[in-house]
């Protein structure tokens, strides 16, 4: 089998800004000063891999979103998404959580016990 690539040269490499969220770093590639045309409601974040000690984990406290949607996709591990609409969802590898904030919603993400 022969693989061919018809891809164009890379136009730009955007290095993500890194932010410590208490025990793990989150990298945000978009929005970026180098790529402003994605608009104010497109975010591309990544984190991991992270290995937590027993009893440690992600504990993103409840925080609001208004007028946008979040999509969470996990490669490994498990997160629990909880929001002010009463939804609680364990997100496992290969699964997706889509939250549409509309006029406003408060949510949190945490690792299980």
Written description of the protein model:
This protein is mostly beta strands and 113 residues long. It has two domains: 13-49, no CATH class; 57-113, Jelly Rolls (Sandwich). Helices cover 0% and strands 41% of the residues. The chain has no helices and nine strands. The protein has strands at residues 17-20, 25-30, 44-47, 59-65, 69-73, 79-83, 88-91, 96-100, 105-110. The strands form three sheets. It has a four-stranded antiparallel sheet with strand order 4-9-6-7, with no helix packed on it. Strands 1-2-3 form a three-stranded antiparallel sheet, with no helix packed on it. Strands 5-8 form a two-stranded antiparallel ribbon. A hairpin with a 4-residue loop joins strand 6 (79-83) and strand 7.
Summarize the SSE layout with pairings.
Layout lengths: L16 E4 L4 E6 L13 E4 L11 E7 L3 E5 L5 E5 L4 E4 L4 E5 L4 E6 L3
Antiparallel strand pairs: 1-2, 2-3, 4-9, 5-8, 6-7, 6-9
How would you concisely characterize the structure shown here?
The chain has 113 residues and is an all-beta fold.
> In percent terms, what proportion of residues is strand?
35-45%
Figure out the total of helices.
0
Whole-number average pLDDT?
Answer: 82
The CATH homologous superfamily name of the largest domain equals Jelly Rolls
Q: Major sheet: size, sense and barrel closure?
A: 4 strands, antiparallel
CATH topology-level name of the largest domain: Jelly Rolls
Tell me the distance between the termini: 47 Å
Which descriptors apply to this entry?
mainly beta, Jelly Rolls, 113 residues, 4-stranded antiparallel sheet, 0% helix
């Amino acid at each position: 089998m022969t693989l061919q690539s018809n891809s164009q040269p890379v136009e730009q490499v955007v290095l993500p800004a890194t932010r410590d969220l208490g025990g793990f770093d989150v990298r945000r590639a978009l929005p970026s000063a180098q790529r402003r045309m994605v608009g104010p409601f497109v975010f591309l974040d990544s984190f991991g891999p992270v290995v937590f000690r027993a009893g440690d984990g992600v504990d993103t406290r409840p925080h609001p979103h208004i007028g946008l949607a979040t999509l969470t996709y996990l490669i490994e591990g498990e997160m629990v998404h909880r929001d002010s609409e009463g939804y609680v969802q364990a997100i496992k590898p290969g699964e997706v959580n889509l939250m549409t904030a509309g006029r406003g919603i408060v949510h949190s993400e945490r690792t299980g016990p």
